[in-house]
Amino acid sequence: MGRLSTFVVRATAIALALTSSVGADSNKGEKYFHDEQAGNCKSCHYTDGRRLVGPGLRGVTERHSGEWLRSFLQDPQQTWSSDHPETLELKQRVRKKRAKVTTCKKQPMDAEGLQDLIEYLQTF
Question: All domains of the chain, ordered by start, with CATH?
Answer without folding.
Answer: 3-121 (1.10.760.10)
